[in-house]
Amino acid sequence: MTSTLSLAERLSGLDDTALHDLVRARGLARARIEDFFDLADALLEPPSVQHALAPLPRPVLAALAAVAQAAGDTAEPVDAERVSSVLHDWGSVDASPTALRDALHALVTSFLAEPVDGGIALYPGVAARFGSWAESAGTTGAKLAASGKPAALATVPDVDPRFVNRLAAERAFVAAGTVAEFVYELEREPARELQKGGLALPDTRRIASALGIEPASVPIVHWLARQCGLVVREGSLWLPTDTADEWTDLSTPERWARLATAWLGSVPADIRPLMVERAHASWGRRCVATHAGGIRRPTHRSVVWSMRSRRTPNSWASRRARRRARRA
């Protein structure tokens, strides 16, 4: 039977490079991880498990669902034969021993499961998080095991390219301005990271008010700034980096290009061709609603900040000097 302790023991056998890659892949944001037990605990938190699930291909997710189904509420190890039987019952046409072995190996190397007594067992919380994610996405193990490509997406009606370009330019400007305002706000007053991960609620509310966005959108802006290397955590505080100083001296199109490149780098390699292939298709109301919720028209404050950051580059140099003085 797996546990946080068994995961900690497994982690202790990894070298520094493997640990670094694992922490980076899971997007861990805990302020304090002092030992392997803390790391194991952090890896089993729902956001970390979600990071591991998101890039997995369909056959591996189907295998995970089959392992959870076979184990039931016992969380006991199950052998490959039982997993294969579940997949066959779901109508999978590719439950061959080789394909199944590769899928189960992917679960192990993703640190979502571990081999136990000739079988495989999911770590605590993995099945529950997968179940919640699958339910919210409207899918099941049987659907994941089904053969063939997903259903074709509906084609978006032809729209005047000028309208699309105008809307895209507006949203790009808002994104660049919002991230710049976020960096400026952290320069004015650093934000505290909670031990369990995420920004402290008072800081989240302060930043949301300064940016003119909902508090729920702050983690998205924070993530993008972090992906672009504009902010870094020192101890329990998030601060702008020297890269942020250089970034704010760029033009708005150049800032947007940096942000877009950072975002694209986070998209799994096997998803990028699909995005190109279906660039002119509708991805569903839920996707549109999710993205639209974090998009707002430019506010007076964001416009002023965008102009100010271009007109007064020396102010960032002085802030940089003060920050380095504080660190010294």
How many DSSP helices?
A: 18
Q: What integer is the average pLDDT?
A: 80
The biggest beta sheet is recorded as:
3 strands, antiparallel
Shape: globular
**Which structural class is indicated by helix and strand composition?**
mainly alpha
Percent range of helical residues? 55-70%
* N-to-C series of helices and strands: HHHHHHHEEHHHEHHEEHHHHHH
* Low-pLDDT segments: 286-316
Strand order across the biggest sheet? 3-5-4
Short description:
With 328 residues, this protein is mainly alpha-helical. It has helices at residues 4-11, 16-26, 36-43, 46-53, 58-71, 80-89, 97-109, 126-137, 141-145, 161-188, 201-211, 218-227, 242-248, 252-266, 272-277, 285-293, 300-311, 313-327; strands at 113-116, 119-122, 191-192, 231-234, 237-240.
Please give a handful of descriptors for the protein shown.
globular, 5 strands, mainly alpha, 328 residues, two-stranded antiparallel sheet, three-stranded antiparallel β-sheet
Give a topology summary:
Blueprint: H1 4-11, H2 16-26, H3 36-43, H4 46-53, H5 58-71, H6 80-89, H7 97-109, E1 113-116, E2 119-122, H8 126-137, H9 141-145, H10 161-188, E3 191-192, H11 201-211, H12 218-227, E4 231-234, E5 237-240, H13 242-248, H14 252-266, H15 272-277, H16 285-293, H17 300-311, H18 313-327
Antiparallel strand pairs: 1-2, 3-5, 4-5
Helix pairs in contact: 1-3, 4-8, 5-6, 5-7, 10-12, 10-14, 10-17
Could you characterize what this model shows?
The protein has helices at 4-11, 16-26, 36-43, 46-53, 58-71, 80-89, 97-109, 126-137, 141-145, 161-188, 201-211, 218-227, 242-248, 252-266, 272-277, 285-293, 300-311, 313-327, and strands at 113-116, 119-122, 191-192, 231-234, 237-240. The protein is mostly helical and 328 residues long. The strands form 2 sheets. The chain has a 3-stranded antiparallel β-sheet with strand order 3-5-4. Helix 4 packs across helix 8.
